[in-house]
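Incident log, support desk, overnight shift.

02:14 A customer reports that sequence design results differ from what the structure should imply. Their input is reproduced verbatim below. On-call engineer (initials T.W.) acknowledged and began investigating.
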């Protein structure tokens, strides 16, 4: 745990959310569908893991 109260899972989650938001704004929905789906899947898995191990 860092002095600011954030741990590495918090920072990774923040980065994943920023990447997902950037992809949604920058890439057309019909282009790179597999990439977007894979990244969204990784983000969902990470957030589920983080929710299970938060504390």
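02:41 Re-run completed on a clean worker. Output:
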């Amino acid at each position: 745990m860092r002095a600011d109260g954030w741990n590495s899972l918090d920072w990774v989650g923040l980065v994943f959310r920023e990447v997902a938001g950037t992809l949604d704004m920058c890439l057309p929905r019909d282009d790179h569908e597999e990439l977007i789906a894979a990244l969204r899947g990784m983000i969902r898995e990470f957030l589920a893991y983080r929710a299970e191990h938060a504390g």
